[in-house]
Amino acid sequence: MPNLVVKSREPDAEGNVLAITPESAGWSYIGLHVYRLKPGQKVNKRTGSAEVCLTLLQGKANIVTSRLQCLNIGSRMSIFEGTPPDSVYVPMNDEYEIEALTDLEIAVCSAPGKAGGEAHFIRSADVQAEMRGYGNMLRRVHNILPEQQEAGSLLVVEVFTPGGHWSSYPPHKHDRDRLPHESYLEEIYYHRVNPGHGFALQRVYTDDRSLDEAMAVANGDAVLVPKGYHPVSAAPGYDLYYLNVMAGPVRTWKFHNDPDHEWLFRQPAKEGEQ
């Protein structure tokens, strides 16, 4: 199994700072490429047998596919503004051009597509936001490409975790094709930390501990989750953002909680309540 941490690098000639493919990850479904582009810089790609979700992490761009033009889009100039992002879904057997209008950081999330899909603009205002957890497990979730939206296999979500809080917690997993109780989904976490010199911690472990890795995560690192539980902790003083990319044989998110920690889902009563 490859190293679960994939580090960003300086931009190459194309502006790419992170490249994860199914082949490099040693699995079957998902990939993630992140680009940091200067104004006027362009990226042109064909999707082939994959579908992609182009998520504007920060900055503005023009994105054009064979049938769709999305001009001057981008809802935030910094990830940590916290507003939901603009994104563009591009189906298989299509093409796209990204043109940066400002300094731009953009994620290209990919997974196997299906015939008949259509490119569409996912507006920031249409992205559902929700709060999950309580106490120091509280975090904000933006559902960018949830299973209720049309796609072949790809699921995309982003999460904001305040410093000192835990996320993807209590621990859960989705590594068995055992519907309706659990779905098999590969997953990538792309982490950003604010301030950027901070860190977070992520653990990936299985019930039998055949996989049990605890990792210090720096700004710009990605973590591969091929199986097992995968909680995250944001260090006090450092807010944590991560982009999640998931896909598997069935496009649904059904997870199994670690039974040792499932009691944490029972929120304690507030003072004065019984």
Automatic annotation (TrEMBL):
Keyword Isomerase on entry: yes
InterPro entries, per database record: Deoxy-glucuronate_isom_IolB, KduI/IolB_isomerase, RmlC-like_jellyroll, RmlC_Cupin_sf
Root EC class: isomerase
Keywords from the UniProt entry: Isomerase
Keyword Isomerase: yes
PANTHER family: 5-DEOXY-GLUCURONATE ISOMERASE
Protein name: 5-deoxy-glucuronate isomerase
Organism: Gordoniibacillus kamchatkensis
